[in-house]
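Recall the central idea of this unit: under ordinary conditions, the amino acid sequence of a chain determines the structure it adopts. In this exercise we apply that idea directly, starting from the sequence alone.
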Amino acid sequence: MPRPDRTEGRHRAYDGAHVRRLALICRARDLGFGIDNIRALLAAVEPSDGSCPEVREIASAHVTEVQTKLADLAWLENILAGTVSRCSGEQSTFCPVFEMLDAVP
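Accordingly, the structure predicted from this sequence is:
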């Protein structure tokens, strides 16, 4: 983040560019971008270095990562839901959830 100017009272004076940059960082973090990708995105939004193809490449790679995570979560949901559906919820020495957790891959 570029250093902001200071007021006569030595307080930092953030301008619109600082606010926009911080908002971009926060939004990118909310969307799950890693720090290295956020740095690359920030570099790409600089007026002298603007590169839509570079931003597209970073975002495309992130979409692929998100899709992989979603597929993994769907797989996990199916396993858990199937195991829970086999559980009667009554007192018993057999519990499908413990059986699944105790299974050696």
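The chain has four helices and two strands.
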